[in-house]
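Q: Structure for this?
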Amino acid sequence: MLRNVFTKTLWERRWGLLGWVIGGFTMTAFIVAVYPIVRDNSGLATLIDELPVGMLALFGIDPEILTTGFGYLQAQMYTLIGPLFVLVLAIGIGASATAVEERSGTADLLLTTPTTRSSVVLQKTLALVISVAVLVLSFVAAILVGQVTVVLRLSIWGIFGVNLGLLLLGTFFGSLAFVIAAWSGMRNLAMGLAAGIAGLAFFINGMAPLVEELQDIQGFLPFHWYLADDPLLNGPSAWLLLLLAGSVLFTAGAVVGFGRRNIGVVSTIRLMPRRSAAATPVRSSQSRLLHSVSGKTVWDRRYSFWWWLLGMAVIAAATAAFFPLTVEVGGDALQDLIDAYPPEMLAMFGVTDSASLFTGAGFLSSRVYSTIGLIVVLSFSIGMGKAALAGEESDGTADLLLTTPQTRSRIVVAKSSAIFGLLLALLAGIAVVVWVSNVVVGLDITFAGLVSATIGMTLFAFLFGTLALATGAWTGSPAVATAVAVATGVVAFLLNGFGLVIDWLEPVRPLSPFYWYQGDTNPLNQGFGWQQPLLLAVGLALIASAVIGFRRRDVGT
Amino acid sequence: MTAAIQTDQLTTYYGSTPGILDLSLEVQVGEVFGFLGPNGAGKSTTIRTLLDLLHPTNGSATILGFDSHRDATEIHRRIGYLPGEVAMYDNMTAREMLTYFSALRSIDTSAYVARLAGRLELDLDRKISSYSSGNRQKVAIIQAFMHKPELLILDEPSSGLDPLMQQEFYRMVDEIQAEGRTVFLSSHILPEVERTADRVAIVRHSRLVALETVADLKAKARRHFQFVFADPIDPAVFSDLPGVSSVRSSHDGHGIDIHVEGPVEGVLGTASEYRMENVISHEGDLEDAFLSFYEDDDAA
C-alpha cells in the first residue's frame, strides 16, 4: 500500500474512510427505509394536487413525482444531505492534501525524493477523487438495496447519473480547496474559503426559485450543474462537463501553485496590525489573555472566533431577509404542505414542531437555532473540546504545560470555562444579529424567547464540547474525541426525531439531549424549565469525568 | 540532606513495551548528573515519569523530597524542564509563550528572560513556527531556566545549538552548579557529559548498567596502546594477558595494536621484555567507556 503518494494517501485515510462509508450507508439506508411511508400516504398526494405548481417548484417538488422513488430521493437525499456529506469529506481532503505535509515538515522529505511536485499534486488529487467515489458508492449500495426491498423503481442509468454528479461536485469543491491550499500553504484558509463558496452557491441556488434576479445567475452555480435536468431521472447531463472542467482547471492551478511555492513558508494573513517588536510583553489586552490557561484558550481563537460569528451572522441575517419573500409566495400554503408531510419524514430532519415553521420565530429558529446554525455552533464547540486536552497532547505541548505548577484538574476546569465563555460570546453575538433582524424585518421574536434560545444553545453546544473534551482527556486522541462527540450527536438527533413517530423509541426519547434542547417546540419557544439545568448538569458531569480521566493519563502514550 | 532525585525500583511501561525497569538511583543536591544511553534505552521515559507525565507501573520516585506523583504540582513549581522533542505553541511568538508559562508559574521573569535571550542571541518577537531548530531549542532552554528552578531536568539540551552556543550553554550549566542548584541532564553527546557532569548513569535496554563518577569511569575505560618493535613479534604473546580485549598485528609484523581494560602493568611488563622502538598511548575517555558497555552487551 505504501508504494507511491497515491496509495499512501489512501492508506493513511483508511480508518477515516471506513467511518464515512459506514455513516454514508447508514444514513442513505435510513432515508430509503422511510420511503414506503411517504409513498403510501394518500393525504399528501391529494394535498399536493391542490397546491399551485409554481410554489411547489420552490421545494424542487414536482407534484407528479413527489411520491415516486425519484422525487423522494431527489428531495431528501440528493438536495442537501448527500452533497453535505460529500463536500465535508472532499473539502477536508483537498485542504489538507499538501498543506498538512507542509506544516508538519514531511513535505521536505517527500519533495526531496525523485517525485516531482506535479506528480504529488496529481496523485493526491486522484486519492481525493477515489475517496469521494468510495463514499458515493456507499450511497449507491444502500439505494440498490432499496431498489429491491422498498421498490424505489429507479433506473440504473439515473442512479449512475446523479451519483456521478455527486462525485464531480465533490471533486470540484475538493480541488477548489486544494488549489487554495497549494498556493497559500494554509489549510484553514482553504477549508474556510471553499466551504464558504460552497455554502453561498448552495444558498443562492436554493433561493433562486423565489427571486427572479437569482434565476439569471443560476446557470453559473455548481449546484445547478449538479442537479440540472434531473440526472436521477434522465442519467448524466451535459452540465456535469462543467463540474469536470472546473475540477481540471483547479487541479491545473494547484499544480502551478504548488510548483511555485516556497515550501513551509506560510504567507500569514493578518487581521490585526503587527505589534512592534519592541513592545513590552504585558501591555496589550491580547497578551493579557496569556496570563492564564483559560485566557490562552481564548487567545488561540482570537481571530477564528470572529469568522465563526461572521458565518452565523450571515446565516441569521440571510434567513431573516428571505422571510418576507417566503410569506409573500404563500407561507400558509407551505405550512399546509409541511403539515401534510408524514411525521417520519419531518422527524428525520429534526422537525419536531411543524406547527410554526412559517411564522417569523419558527422560520428563523429552524435555520439559526436548529439545522444549519446548530451544525455550525456544534462544530465550533466540538472543535474546541477536542483541541483542549487531546490536541495539546498530540501536539506535544502538553509536556510543557503539565510541568508547570498547574494541576491537571485546574487545567481541565480552566479550559472548560474558556470554552463556555467563547460559546456564550458567540451565541450572544448571534442574538444581537437576530434581535436587529427582528426589529428591521418584524419576525415576532420575543426577547424572553431569544434569551432562552441563546442560553439553551450555549448549554447544548457546551455539552457536546465537554463530551469531546472528556473523551480527549481519557484517550488523548483528537480523532476519537471528535468521532465520539459527532456520533453521539447524530444518535441523539435521530432519537429525538424518530422517538416522536416510532412507538418503541418513545420511552427513550427523553434521554436525547436534543429533546432537552428543543423538546416538542423550537428553541425560540422553548422557554425556561428543567431542560437548561439538565443540560448544564450533564456538561458539568462530563467535566468531572474529564478531570478524573486526565489525572490518570500517561501523557503521550 | 534530601536528595534532589531518588528513585526506588522505578518501572514504567510505555504502553506494553518496557520503558525503564527497576531503576534505583540518587542524585545529590548541587550535582550535575549525566544520564546516558543509546536511543530508545529509556532515558526520556524515565524523565517523563519523574515529571508525572507518565505514571510508574511499579516503584516510586521522589524529587526534592516530594513524591513524584502525589506532590507533582509542588515539584513542578521547583523544576525547569527541557523536553527531548520540543513541541511548542507554533502560533505564538517566543515572548508570548514565555509570558504565558511565567504566568502559570505566577512569577515575572521578563528581566531575566531578556538577559538569557541576549546571551543566546535570540530574537523573542518572532513566531515560534518561523524559528530554525537551533532557535527553537534556545526558546526551550530559556523556558527551562527563566524561573531559576532548584532542579533542572534537561533532555538532550544542546541538540541543534551551534558550537558557540553550546559553549554558552555549558557556561550556564556551570553557573547553575556554582549557585548550588542541581542539573539532571540526559544526553548521548559524550563530550558534553564529560564537560559538564560530575557523575553519570548509563542505561541500556531499559536497565541501569553503570552508575559512577566521570573520573572513575574514565579510569576504568579501555586504553589503547600501539607498540612498534625492532623485531617481528607474535600477537599471541599478548592475547592471554589480563584485561586485554583485542590485539592486532601492525607495521608488517613489527607492531602491535592493543586495547586494555583495567590495570595495564601486565601489558607494559610483557612489552618491555622485547626491544621496543616506539609506544603510543591514548588516554581512555568516556567514549571508550561508553562503547565498551555497549560492546559487552552486544557480546552477551
